[in-house]
Specification:
Helices cover about 15% and strands about 5% of the residues. The protein is built from two helices and three strands, in the order H-E-E-E-H. A three-stranded antiparallel β-sheet has the order 2-1-3, with no helix packed on it. The radius of gyration is 25 Å and the shape is elongated. It starts with 17 loop residues before the first helix and ends in a 5-residue tail after the last helix.
């Protein structure tokens, strides 16, 4: 006898209300953008709009953005807290400096905000749609 029996494919799982499934899929479609996040207050600036010069500061708290703490090479565990070799050590990592290898640390906006698109859906309509039959 052959042990390679192929029967009918297993049934697809029932995911519940198709409207809920559609809304859930749509809610996961988010636009992720790269931002520069202030290490002091957490304020975010779009990476495309922000040009970081030696005098750049955060719009919200006036923390210098051209500093070691905002650089992608900053690593607290590395020697002189910088992953770049042959760099002159900086004593104050939060102060503005003129390091030639400065490259701003870009992070993804993880707040879950949608950029563009429609406004908020009406909560009552969303609630009522939970109990509609497909």
């Amino acid at each position: 006898m052959s042990k390679d029996r192929r029967g009918p494919p297993p049934p697809r799982p029932d995911l519940g209300n198709p409207e809920q499934v559609r809304r859930l899929k749509r809610s996961m479609e988010r636009s992720a953008t790269e931002v520069i996040r202030c290490q002091n207050c957490g304020h975010q600036q779009l990476a495309q709009a922000a040009f970081i010069s030696a005098r750049s500061t955060c719009d919200k708290c006036s923390t210098p953005l051209h500093s070691c703490r905002h650089c992608r090479h900053f690593d607290p565990k590395a020697r002189h807290q910088c992953r770049q070799p042959d760099i002159e050590p900086v004593s104050d990592k939060g102060a503005a400096n003129s390091c030639p290898s400065f490259d701003p640390r870009l992070v993804l906006d993880a707040t879950g905000k949608r950029h563009g698109g429609r406004g908020k859906p009406d909560a009552k309509n969303l609630f009522d749609s939970l109990f509609k039959r497909p």
